[in-house]
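Protein in question filed below.

…
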Amino acid sequence: MTGLVLLIPLALLMGLLGLVAFFWALRNGQFDDFDGAAARILIDEDQPAPAEPRS
C-alpha cells in the first residue's frame, strides 16, 4: 500500500512530462513535414560519372 503512495504520483508526473514534451515538439515544428523524409530518400543527388571515350 505504501508503494502506491509513491508510484501513483510518480506515474502521473511522468505522464505530464511526456505530454509537455509532446506539446513542445509540436510547437517547435517537429511534425510539420510528414512526406519530406520519405520522398528525400528517392532523390538521387549524385551526378553520374562521365562516360570514357572509346578508342
